[in-house]
Amino acid sequence: MFHYALLVILIRHLRFFFEPVPWCVRAVGFCDSLFEVGLPVLYVSDVLFLAALLYLLGRRLFDGRIMYISLAQDYFPLFLLLGIAGSGLWMRYLDKVDAVAVKELVMGLVTFHPALPSHPLAPSFFVHLTLVCVLGLYFPFSKLMHLAGVFLSPTRVVPNMSRRARWVNPWNDPSITPHPYAAYEDEFREKMLEAGLPVEKKA
Question: What's this model's pTM, rounded to 2 decimal places?
Answer without folding.
Answer: 0.72
